[in-house]
UniProtKB/TrEMBL annotation:
UniProt keyword DNA-binding, yes or no: yes
One of the protein's GO biological processes: DNA integration
Tyr recombinase domain location: 168-288
PROSITE patterns for this protein: TYR_RECOMBINASE (PS51898)
Protein name, UniProt field: Tyr recombinase domain-containing protein
Keywords per UniProt: DNA recombination, DNA-binding
GO MF, one example: DNA binding
Record InterPro entries: DNA_brk_join_enz, Integrase-like_cat_sf, Integrase_catalytic, Integrase_recombinase_N, Phage_L5_Integrase_N
Length: 288
């Protein structure tokens, strides 16, 4: 009687006499059973179970599930197109400072109890709540990716309210305080402070202004670039605003215009409107 052809997976006998089962997973890669089997029938039964899981959408990539969180998270930061340099730097710093006990754990070993334990200890540690919240949101994002990749069944980050960013309300300077500040600071930085105070420009937008972006005739400043500076790296560069709305013209109040004219005459660079004494682009911490 002819041997029945297998329709899913394969089984081969090893030199030890035991049997190894494997199959082509939904990700296109060959997957092997985590253990060998005493009989071919046992291997066949394992493959039947795997095929059923795939058909139900419950299949897991066993090899990927055994990858450590540290390696997977690093690859996630490296390969995700929507992650900027600032957020990547923040996440890698938080991994080093607040997530060390998770880094060597396989993805499948990071369960809800493990996450709850880590989060509770992190809150009691020396890290600030902002950094711990960032770490939790990053962990949740990485585990969401692992779930989509078929490494885990559910995302273990299930703590209600954890990672919520509740920034403290910041005080707003009164007009008189702005006047006092402008009179007290170095004259070359007055225009930058006034653009932030009266025109609502962010730090990166102020530092990213080009000389051509400042229209002294019509009293308009064009926001076209955002200056990015990393905290733990000398890397600095200009980037486009995140949205089309971020690229915009901003009307300058009449009482601010004299300061822009003075700045253009005395301190503006040939290319950049704000430069330091060394002629390089002004650093964000010069006025913030």
């Amino acid at each position: 009687m002819a041997k029945k052809r297998r329709r899913f997976g394969s089984v081969r006998r090893l030199p030890s006499g035991r049997f190894q089962a494997s199959f082509i997973g939904p990700n296109g890669g060959r997957q092997y059973a985590p253990d060998t089997f005493r009989t071919r029938t046992d291997a066949d039964r394992w493959l039947v179970g795997v095929e059923a899981d795939i058909n139900k959408g419950a299949w897991l990539d066993d090899k990927l599930g055994r990858e450590t969180f540290g390696n997977y998270a690093s690859a996630y930061l490296r390969d995700s197109p929507n992650i900027g340099d600032r957020w990547e730097e923040t996440c890698r710093r938080n991994m080093r400072l607040h997530m060390t006990e998770l880094l060597d754990l396989p993805l499948i070993a990071i369960t809800p109890p493990v996450v709850r334990s880590w989060y509770a200890k992190a809150l009691l540690g020396r890290g600030g709540k902002t950094s711990i919240g960032q770490s939790y949101r990053f962990l949740r994002a990485v585990m969401n990716s692992a779930k989509r990749d078929g490494a885990i069944v559910i995302n273990p980050c299930q703590i209600p309210g954890a990672g919520t960013d509740k920034a403290k309300e910041r005080g707003i300077a009164a007009p008189g305080q702005i006047v006092d500040l402008v009179e007290a600071i170095t004259p070359r930085y007055r225009a930058a402070v006034l653009l932030a105070a009266w025109c609502g420009l962010r730090r990166g937008e102020v530092c990213g202004l080009r000389t051509d972006d400042v229209d002294l005739v019509d009293g308009v400043v064009w926001v076209r670039k955002n200056r990015v500076e990393l905290l733990e790296s000398p890397k600095k560069y200009d980037k486009d605003p995140k949205t089309d709305a971020g690229r915009r013209p901003v009307s300058v109040p009449p009482h601010v215009m004299p300061y822009l004219r003075d700045h253009m005459k005395e301190w503006a660079g040939r290319d950049r409107f704000f430069i330091g004494k060394d002629g390089q682009p002004m650093r964000g911490n010069a006025v913030y």
